[in-house]
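Help wanted!
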Amino acid sequence: MNALVLGAGTMGNAHSAAYAKMEGVRLCGIVDVNEEKAKQLADRYGTQAFTSYQEAKQQIAAIDVVSVCLPTPLHKEMVMQVAEDKSHIVCEKPLARHLDDAREMIQYCQQQGVRLFVGHVVRFFPEYVQAKQVLDTEKIGQPVIARTTRGGAFPRASNDWYANFIKSGGVILDTVIHDFDFLRWCFGDVERVYAKTSRGRTAGSIEYALITLRFENGVIAHVEGTWAHQTFHTKLEIAGKDGIIQHDSSAVNPVVLEKKAQANEAAGVAVPSSPSKDNPYFLEIEHFIECIKEDKEPIVTAEDAYKAMEIALAALESIETRKPVYLTHSTDLEGVR
Amino acid sequence: MKVGIISFAHGHANGYANALKQIDGVELYGIADEEEERGRQAADRFGSIYFADYQDLLKEPIDAVVVTSENQKHLEHVKAAAEHGKHILCEKPLSSNVQDAEEMIRVCKEKGVILQTAFPVRFNTPIQHAKKVIDSGELGNIVAIKGTNRGTNPGGWFVQKEKSGGGAVIDHTVHVVDIIRWFTKAEIVEVYAEIDDKLSDYEIDDTGLLTMEFDNGMFATLDCSWSRNKSFPTWGDVTLEIVGTNGTLSVDAFAQKMDVYHEDGVNWSFWGDNMDQGLVEDFVQTVRVKGRPSISGEDGLKALEAAMAAYQSSERKEAVAIKDL
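Answered by r_m:
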């Protein structure tokens, strides 16, 4: 199987590393408009660099699967092109910036008979998988209130596109969409959303958002999304009638390296790491490849990705209207740009 | 100075009694409690005199009282104390409803007695340190705050609405709302809340999540749920995540603890400073100098309003403006 990666940023790196390591898959190329970035990544994994998808297409005989690891506003155009060429697609989240685009992408992929997978990788993080498993054993009884945290520093990427809300949708559409998807996986569909963000309240590169979700099954969830901190961290808590599940990434430091300060430094920096044999991106992409090979339904579908977008866009609408937004009227959400 | 305590219905009475006993020149003169056994035991424990009728305690030559009765009874007890010219430290929430709280403030003003709301968290040392950091301006402008004051379901009268006025939301909203107001000097203008009652079998709210807009342009959320179960290693928490334009400040008021493992599992043993002592010493000092209370009746009322707005919001499924209460 030939896999092509579009985008040599953070996610392009993660996808490339996964394909390079995976048995039965050949990483056949890296595409990035920034030639140097494409080359660097291609060299690391012993593959070819291209500056456009067209160029890659012309030089590679058969591309079976394409990872779309580009800024959100470029997802649709590339997904449509790749689907037209009848390659399967792994698209990073969020699937799109707007719901109507996401719907079109899903429909066109179906029409073309190609698989469309979306990178809701939290479903492959072992601590989150385990939380879902414990929840399903009913060990904590009926779940009642959940709290999640995700974020760290303000993301910096090509052309500072994250900072452009029109393009990225900010921390709500870009970052805590992971938690929306995870919580939907645990509790089913959301009934209403109420949200606040710092965006528009203050100048400068920070965004901090707090979102309340009420699920159809009654669960209340509090979602914290931050691009206002310094270090990436995630937290999860689910309190049920009979017990509590808690996870805090900042408390999981199985290996911590502290180096002696160099002559010109005030103090050495501690570098914590939490190693696993396979990282969640590898597990995710391996699963998607298996779904292609065996024609299986994935753990997270494109429809799930659409539903997570619905929650995020409802949150954005709630911020505008200062009212709770009900997801049953999801057609109204198209207006949120 | 002679101080009385009206009712040990609220467990915090024990902390306040202990604190009173530690202060030089202060005598815990008497304890009134309509529940004789509870009152007599407390009087024995703290070497004080038991009064079956609080009116009799108020006739004694005491300077001040601590009111730690059920929320619904605060008005009656505060009014009576004010009538007798006694200064008052009243347990939070100030009352089970806004009207009673307003009347308590009015009566105390009229009678010229001090009414202080018991918000001990203001005397928690890490919270006081956080206040200093905020006051220094290091964080820049505060943009948002995420708060929690979670706890264990206390049962008893706390889950009887006619005595408490409500469950987790009235019990646990007021502490953190008071701290946010104290930290930022901002007032709440609007509250949205999701509230539910499924954590326990009692038919009273035990789950609450508030979102608040403030008059300075910042927003905050607060989880006031009784979501700590019996096997959780401690009673609950007070935490604040404060996001400013120049940085963030994480505050965990009871993080100063050690883990104790035994047959029943693990318990967190708190070793930080005693906040009740600070609260009671502050009140005693205010009475001594006949000064203005550091935490007024109005502060108690403002915090109570947030809880009441939360209940209304949950019922109406929309944000509720404080001015429309």
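OP: Thanks! One thing I noticed: The first helix of chain A runs from residue 10 to 21.
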